[in-house]
Design a protein that fits this description.
The complex is a heterotrimer of chains A (317), B (569) and C (303). Chain A has 317 residues and is mainly alpha-helical. Chain A has helices at residues 2-12, 16-26, 28-46, 72-79, 81-113, 118-128, 136-147, 153-161, 174-202, 206-214, 219-244, 252-257, 263-266, 269-276, 283-310; strands at 57-58, 67-68. Chain A is built from 15 helices and two strands. In chain A, a hairpin with an 8-residue loop joins β1 and β2. The chains are: A mainly alpha (317), B alpha/beta (569), C mainly alpha (303).
């Protein structure tokens, strides 16, 4: 009803003002339904934002009066050489996780979708997401065990194959660290992340596949021309959202797998904030770092959304 | 009209859900009540007979330690409740302490009692606790007064505000106490290394490492797995295994990141000294000889324990409590030759000081918050548990049930009781561990000659020693493994000791400095140890330069000011 | 019919299947291993487990790690709280997220842009724990069951994902309903919701797993009320005390002892907790799975 109304109104060429009111009236149901949503996100998400003033204070819990320090916390962050290094580490690990994460999740979704035996398909799918339920401390524990130079499976295997003669100290190699973290992420989350793509694939009309089969399209062509376009919009939307989290590479994995030898490449922003902020009782520093991350996030998704819009793809806004 | 229907429907949905929800909440809220009321009459009856004055009261308590509250129906807890009328409702830390304390302090939603643990600086600065100065020394709480009378200054110093905020729960020793076992730092060595070499008693670092080296050469594998010469745990905050040894090698006790001159009581950094360098040089040498594996710097804590548990770790510097979990499987499998003894290792010409005499730190305890519903009653409770009878109840348990009294008046346990006391699940159901652990307590020896805690009672210690250990120690003419170590040089630690127990206030230069020093040590020491031998000196110099540029003076200034505060008084 | 198709399949097609199946079998092994290993650790005697090297089978089999968890009677009450909050928050979140998504899927809606922005921005706000606590306290949520429900009524990510799915639906369905004179809410309930089952099942899974696994909300916002405790929080408490037990508080116990001082270790508790936490989700999974693993391709090809 609202859509057809606007079309008619355009045709009849009302003045802009009455057209506007016409739209409002026509969409009154939608507007009323959206008001509680506005109210809700204001109360839950925006109202506590006033707490961000902490970033400009030397906040001490329990004090009635807080000391205002202007941009001191930000200065602490950006004057510290270590902070710039952890930004680099965070960006790199985040990008590796992002690219590998998307690639393997989509690959897995497509391959699962191509399995013909329905029971096998369901079993594979159910098993693939199991690592998601394990905490990082368990997963990193297993990784450390596998990579150990003291009887670890990976070293044993490589030695038996004759590829190496002495065990490699995987976790003591700064070059390897980002790759190990990336692989750990893929291992833990690829099955879980593929669920959304499987859901998107079920939204593709079966008629398209039938028609393709009749036209003689082979497997790769069907994947290329039907499945991939079918999940493209989901992929793009998730990619835009994910780019907003580019400064979130987590801290648990890096914290649990890191050590003094690789600390130049293993520390992330979150670890930095934990060590130099929260654990020293400097909650303001944590707030300032959070604020910095939020600003970067918003810039990132704005750019990503704009680019996506320009190249004619799905977008958020 | 359709719109109104929509709205009504949405509202109805929301409402119905909220009814369901509040319904659930309400029901859940009511549930625990019946239990409480059911158990109360019994208590009241008991109180009516013994102490009619004491109204039952419940205090909530948050502890920054990670324990499990004793179960409510356990007999010792019930007995304490009967005697005092007080129920303690514990909440223990689960996640990150700074995070949780930040929220508790900021919100002002305090419990009645609080043990702020490592967040004590934040808590005391925010005036979470009521000052106890006006209560202590008045004679109203005679047991508290006598318990703390030698240490009032230390209690005040610990707050940083010259007030008593916390009643330290540890370190108040009675009687002529000497440590019956080494729980702290030491260069530990597997008993078999010593047995195999004909029971020597190494005293210097060189002797220690040459024993290790020879043993590794002689037995390249233990039970089919490669022998590990010397472990240096460097994981997270447990990196004290990496950082602390040098101070002990020059005969100083564990003061953490500084060394304190025993004559002038001036603290200085030791990580930049030649004797520290010599230690890491030795480790570097051992690394290149294969006695130390690079794996030791990347392993996590579990992997470290696992290695120890397989019995193939020959030696390590550590604190006993930190690796005892790894030794447990060796004990259950009775592989005593693979368990460890601490050795009195120093450089030539020094006397080891690994065993600490009784040490009262002052800040490791419990405070009464400004939100406490009845501070006087809370103090009365603490006063009541600071008696010999109550301490025996809390630590030994109930006579005839948890222990027996011998003809000589000494307490002992049967084998069955000893076995029970090692079962955490049993303790949870039958003993009041957290009541004595979290609250002020007696340590040492009671006036009647019994030790405050059963696990320290000499009869109990010897009764649990294995045949192997008796023979092994007998070779040296020892009865206890601590006899390998020099006895403590004082009957009580100097007033300043230990520096690692000082509360460094958040946000200060001193805190930032110590944070930076720690970070540098954790980062660079493993790299220095694994560096090529010819590049060692350069790597060391680079590290020392970074240390000197870290602003460490701020930390030293703070420490020295604290020391003189404690020593001056 | 099916057979003739089968015969027509190209070699390439078959190679693909062979490759795909082999890949999936290897993958299954890689994915099932950590979970299996966790089960193995949880069924192995705790002290023996310290030695590590547990891979495919428990060395010293025991149920102790599980019985130890259920020794305390708090776990049963906490289980009910966990179940109820998970069900309620999942239903409400899916419903409201879908409703918001439907509103935003109307491309001509006047408030679409501002509502989308307002929602998306929430994903990137990090106000910190203390302001959040104050906000919840102002709303009366502290130590209140509603703290499990109210903050989870809507998820911005869920809204966006559902909206994207709705975009992909044939518009003709909603159009024809509108022409039939159906109101917005009826279109939403009768047409959009049934069509969105795959994505709603996905979102439900996300929300349910999140709600089921969370312990932090209890810990920060409801920890002083035992009747509000959740299964996860109770288990975290046990885990956290197990960490201390193994590095014992009491100097004497293991230093003198002949046998073990601890009956559980952090690893044994953690493994048992992980399995207990995962089981309910794994149990309900097949019921959701049918919505997003539909086997449409096969259905299509086989006719």
């Amino acid at each position: 009803m609202p859509e057809s109304n606007t079309k008619i109104s355009r045709a009849v060429n009302y003045t802009p003002k009455s057209k506007f009111w016409k739209t409002i009236v026509g969409q009154r149901a939608l507007i009323l339904m959206s008001l509680p949503i506005f109210a809700y996100i204001y109360i839950i998400n925006y109202r506590p934002l006033k707490g961000l003033v902490m970033a400009f204070q030397d906040y001490r819990p329990g004090k009635a009066e807080q000391k205002w320090v202007g941009f001191k916390q930000f200065e602490i962050l950006f004057s510290d050489e270590a902070f710039l290094r952890v930004i680099r580490n965070t960006l790199c690990m985040s990008l590796i996780n992002l690219i590998a994460g998307f690639f393997f999740a989509i690959l897995l979704a497509i391959l699962i979708n191509e399995i013909k035996h329905i029971v096998f398909k369901k079993v594979v799918q159910s098993i693939s997401y199991l690592p998601h339920f394990l905490s990082w401390i368990i997963v990193t524990g297993l990784i450390s065990t596998f990579l150990s130079s003291d009887g670890g499976l990976i070293n044993d295997f490589l030695i038996k194959l004759g590829l190496i003669t002495d065990p490699v100290h995987w976790l003591a190699q700064p070059k390897m660290f980002w790759g190990i973290v990336g692989a750990a992420h893929v291992w833990k989350e690829m099955g879980w992340d593929s669920i959304i793509y499987l859901a998107a694939i079920t939204g593709i009309s079966p008629e398209l596949y039938e028609a393709a089969v009749i036209d003689g399209a082979n497997r790769f062509q069907r994947i290329r021309y039907i499945t991939l376009p079918g999940i493209k919009s989901t992929f793009i939307v998730l990619l835009i959202l994910r780019l907003g989290w580019i400064l979130n590479a987590g801290f648990e994995v890096q914290f649990l797998l890191g050590n003094g030898i690789v600390s130049d490449v293993s520390q992330t922003i979150d670890i930095f904030v934990l060590k130099n902020g929260i654990s020293l009782g400097n909650y303001s520093l944590a707030t300032a770092a959070g604020m910095f991350k939020s600003v970067v996030s918003l810039i990132m998704i704005t750019i990503a959304n704009y680019v996506s819009k320009r190249i004619g793809e799905e977008r958020l806004v | 009209m359709k719109l109104s229907k929509v709205l009504v429907l949405v509202l109805a949905l929301a409402l119905s859900f909220s009814f369901v929800v509040t319904g659930c909440g309400q029901k859940a809220a009511d549930e625990p009540e019946p239990e409480k009321t059911a158990s109360k009459p019994v208590e009241k009856a008991a109180e009516a007979e013994e102490a009619p004055k004491l109204e039952p009261i419940t205090f909530t308590m948050f502890s920054g330690d990670q324990y499990q509250a004793p179960s409510e129906d356990n007999p010792v807890v019930q007995k304490v409740r009967e005697l005092t009328g007080v129920t303690i409702e514990f909440e223990f830390l689960v996640g990150d302490l700074a995070q949780k304390m930040g929220v508790i302090i900021a919100s002002g939603d305090y419990p009645d009692l609080m043990n702020p643990s490592q967040s004590r600086a934040t808590a005391m600065e925010a005036n979470v606790f009521i000052p106890l100065d006006e209560y202590i020394g008045t004679g109203k709480y005679a047991n508290i007064d006598s318990h703390y009378s030698p240490y009032i200054n230390k209690l005040k110093a610990a707050s940083g505000q010259d007030k008593i905020f916390l009643l330290d729960s540890f370190g108040r020793y009675y009687g002529n106490w000497i440590p019956p076992y080494q729980n702290g730092s030491g260069f530990f060595m597997q008993k078999d290394v010593l047995a195999d070499a004909g029971y020597p008693n190494p005293k210097t670092l060189d002797e220690y490492f040459s024993l290790i080296e020879n043993y590794v050469k002689k037995y390249p594998t233990i039970d089919g797995q490669p022998t590990l010469g010397f472990e240096v745990l460097s994981y997270d905050w447990r990196s004290f295994c990496l950082k602390n040894p040098a101070q002990h090698l020059v005969g100083r006790p564990n003061d953490g990141d500084v060394i304190v001159d025993p004559d002038t009581y001036v603290a200085s950094l030791y990580q930049d000294t030649d004797f520290a360098k010599a230690y890491y040089k030795k480790l570097n040498e051992m690394f290149h000889k294969g006695v130390i594996s690079a794996e030791t710097f990347t392993q996590n804590y579990d992997q470290y324990l696992a290695k120890i548990a397989t019995g193939r770790v020959v030696a390590m510097f550590d604190q006993y409590w930190n690796f005892q979990a790894g030794e447990l499987p060796l004990r259950t499998e009775e592989r005593w030759e693979r368990t460890y003894v601490p050795l009195d290792i120093t450089y030539e010409g020094y006397r080891g000081q690994y065993l600490d005499p009784p040490t009262f730190t002052g800040g490791n305890g419990m405070g009464i918050t400004t939100a406490c519903k009845d501070p006087e009653r809370a103090l009365q409770y603490i006063d009541m548990i600071l008696t010999e009878d109550m301490q025996k109840l809390l630590q030994w348990g109930i006579e005839g049930v948890n222990y027996h009294v011998g003809d000589d008046g000494m307490y002992y346990r049967t084998d069955e009781q000893r076995a029970q006391s090692r079962d955490q699940a049993w303790i949870y159901d039958n003993m009041a561990d957290q009541l004595w652990n979290q609250f002020p307590k007696f340590q040492g020896i009671h006036a009647d000659g019994n030790w405050c805690h059963p696990n320290e009672q000499p009869g109990e210690v010897l009764a649990e020693q294995s045949k192997y250990d008796q023979d092994f120690l007998g070779q040296y003419g020892f009865k206890l493994p601590t006899e390998f170590l020099s006895p403590p040089p004082f009957s009580e630690s100097p007033a300043y000791y230990p520096v690692w127990g000082y509360t460094v206030e958040d946000g200060t230069d001193a805190k930032n400095a110590i944070n930076k020093i720690t970070e540098l040590e954790n980062t660079y020491l493993p790299r220095i140890i694994t560096e090529d031998a010819d590049k060692f000196d350069a790597a060391w110099d680079a590290y020392v330069e970074l240390l000197h540029g870290s602003g460490y003076e701020a930390y030293l200034d703070f420490v020295n000011a604290e020391i003189s505060k404690r020593m001056g008084n | 019919m099916a057979k003739s198709h089968y015969l027509k399949r190209s070699i390439q097609d078959r190679l693909f299947d062979i490759f795909n199946c082999s890949f999936m079998i290897i993958l299954m092994f890689v994915m099932v291993f950590p979970f299996w290993n966790t089960i193995v650790v949880s069924l192995n005697e705790a002290i023996d487990g310290i030695k590590g090297n547990l891979y495919f089978w428990p060395r010293v089999f025991t149920f102790n790690n599980y019985t130890n968890l259920f020794r305390t009677n708090t776990l049963v009450d906490a289980f009910y709280v966990s179940v109820s909050k998970t069900i309620i928050v999942t239903l409400l979140n899916v419903f409201f997220s879908a409703l918001a998504a439907y509103i935003l899927s109307r491309r001509d809606f006047v408030l679409k842009k501002i509502l989308t922005i307002a929602l998306v921005v929430t994903l990137y706000l990090d106000v910190g724990l203390i302001p959040q606590y104050f906000n919840f306290r102002d709303l009366g949520l502290i130590n209140n069951y509603m703290v499990y429900i109210v903050p989870g009524l809507l998820g911005a990510l869920n809204v966006i994902v559902i909206r994207t799915f709705i975009y992909g639906l044939p518009e003709s369905l909603a159009e024809s309903a509108k022409i039939d004179g159906a109101g917005e809410f009826r279109i939403f309930v009768q047409i959009i919701i049934p069509l969105c089952k795959p994505i709603l099942a996905t979102v439900a899974l996300w929300v349910a797993v999140g709600a089921w696994n969370s312990w932090f909300d209890t810990y920060i916002f409801a920890s002083s009320k035992q009747h509000l405790s959740t299964l996860q929080y109770e288990m975290m408490k046990l885990l956290s005390s197990a960490m201390i037990q193994s590095g014992s508080i009491n100097p004497g116990i293991a230093a003198t002892g002949s046998t073990s001082a601890v009956t559980v270790t952090p690893n044994s508790v953690r493994s048992a907790i992980t399995i207990i936490a995962a089981l309910p989700i794994i149990f309900i999974y097949p019921f959701l799975q049918k919505y997003f693993v539909a086997g449409l391709v096969i259905g299509g090809v086989k006719g």
